Amino acid sequence: MIILSSMFLVSTRITKPKNYATFTSGPTLKQFILKAQVINFYREMMKTTKLIHNKNDKKELRKWIRQEFKIYKSETNTEKIKELLSRGKKEFKRISGLIMLSS
């Protein structure tokens, strides 16, 4: 199609739209949500360590949290991740209770 515009000859082509939604791999919605839950849990644990006044205890607990998450960083089995998250939340609840008592 050719359009005459302000003394200039402008040529425009009509093309087919590109297919942008051709993802072949990547996380499913459930995996994406589970990953977000794990990240939020990690952040919650790290924020809770701010309540510890003793710097050495705080540093040690943060180091332990990082190590535990690093161990299972490459886990891909969603059932195993759910189990670890559940176990971690129970342990965190126990630890945070102790932190509240010591504060």
Automatic annotation (TrEMBL):
It comes from the Eukaryota. Keywords: Mitochondrion, Transit peptide. InterPro entries: Complex1_LYR_dom, Complex1_LYR_LYRM2. Residues 37-93 form the Complex 1 LYR protein domain. Its main location: mitochondrion. The keyword Transit peptide applies. GO terms for cellular component: mitochondrion. It is found in: Mitochondrion. Involved in efficient integration of the N-module into mitochondrial respiratory chain complex I. This is LYR motif-containing protein 2. It comes from Diversispora epigaea.
